[in-house]
Write a structure and sequence with these properties.
Length: 267
């Protein structure tokens, strides 16, 4: 049994249907210049079993960075970048993958990976099997050349962040709660307005994440200085792209990306 996404190229669809192994196909997804990841668009029943899933359809749409141990995910991004720049990197190696139904549980597996380009898109065809050696992350002599890549070269191909990085930011930080006069916690989504029982309106800017009170139900500008954006209800293009890829945009994400961009401009 296999499962595929609608975006799977016909030639890869045919290849996957011929497989009798635990196989996944992932496509490189450019969300924003800072956020690049790979998403599974094809999987076999055998591959699902390695992740402790019952159906291959449960793998479709999963982000690769979220399915691996964080250290292995970072190494995988480094290997992909090195191959892109023409360096010879291991294509058969051991890593740790998540057991999806059990938070925090990992399983060690061998990956045989082919990195290929179809049209203008990059894909990874991966076959999973039993692990026969320690994880590659513990064998740095096998990817020594990749460690010499500059941050600039790495960021051009895999960005600064993966989807797993963004999720980690959410888990590590909590939003300050706003309370009504009666003590009830209030949640204001980015770009939204909350009607209070005092004939006032609570707004939240999607650009700066700031919150302000107003007697106007639809202000023309963000009420926080120095933002003052007229399009305060709209996400910027990178975050609209994230939404289109099924990623829930949070205030923490917006602030983190803005902070990283300011830092990169100042360096």
């Amino acid at each position: 049994m296999i499962a595929v996404d609608l975006g799977l190229p016909p030639e890869l669809d045919v290849w996957l249907k011929r497989q009798h192994t635990a196989t996944t196909i992932a496509r490189r997804i450019y969300i924003d210049e800072d956020i690049i990841d790979a998403r599974i668009i094809g999987a076999t029943q055998g591959a699902a079993a390695w992740y402790s899933l019952t159906q291959p359809s449960q793998l479709i749409g999963q982000w690769i960075s979220t399915l691996q141990h964080p250290a292995d995910a970072q190494l995988g991004r480094l290997l992909s970048t090195a191959r892109y720049y023409g360096l010879h990197m291991p294509t058969r190696y051991v890593c740790r993958i998540r057991q999806v139904p059990t938070p925090g549980a990992f399983r060690t597996v061998t990956k045989d990976t082919i990195q290929m380009v179809v049209g203008s898109e990059t894909y990874w065809l991966t076959v999973l099997s039993e692990a026969t050696e320690p994880p590659l992350v513990l064998q740095s002599e096998r990817y020594r050349e990749a460690l010499l890549l500059t941050d600039d070269l790495k960021e051009k191909y895999v960005g600064r962040l993966s989807v797993a990085d963004m999720q980690a930011m959410i888990h590590e930080r909590t939003e300050p709660q706003i309370h009504s006069r009666g003590g009830r916690p209030l949640t204001v989504a980015l770009g939204e307005t909350l009607v209070l029982d005092t004939n006032l309106y609570l707004h939240r800017c999607a650009r700066c994440t700031g919150i302000w009170l107003s007697a106007d139900p639809d202000p023309a500008r963000c009420g926080k200085r120095p933002c003052q954006q007229t399009a305060w209800r709209e996400f910027t293009k990178p975050f609209r792209s994230m939404q289109q890829h099924g990623i829930c945009v949070t205030p923490q994400m917006v602030r983190e990306v803005r902070h990283r961009r300011r830092a990169s401009r100042g360096s």
